[in-house]
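Researcher: Please translate sequence to structure tokens.
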Amino acid sequence: VGRTRAEAVRSSADHFGLDPAPMTVRHCPALTAADARDAALTLLARDRSITAILAGNDLMAMGCYAAAQQLGRSCPGDISIIGYNDMPSVEWWRPALTTVRIPQYDIGREAARLLLERIDGDADQPARQILLPVSLIVRSSTAPVH
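Model: Translation complete:
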């Protein structure tokens, strides 16, 4: 999923005429708030020109909030932060988190449908990849580019 999201960011940058070269991808193996905080601290301390972080999930975005605060950078004034998943409660964070809403219910429904197809005798069919649409939920953790 991480690679697919990174590719989507690069593809979107290209689509909008942005140079993806200065974009830094930092992998956090544990996908936790603590790992994201540590990665964000490293990135933000090394490069003050960074104006946005797209975290791998909403918990990781929380770690990015902590790193920005620790370094005295305001969100969204100095840095925009975006998460993935639209966890319950992210709208109550301060600032409320901009996030990519994943259609969790639809994912479960499609997975169950595919499983039932296999059980009903379609086990010989090749595996399929199904991509479901996501939604950007804009809240107050993002600001226009300076």
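Researcher: Any highlights?
Model: The mean pLDDT is 90.
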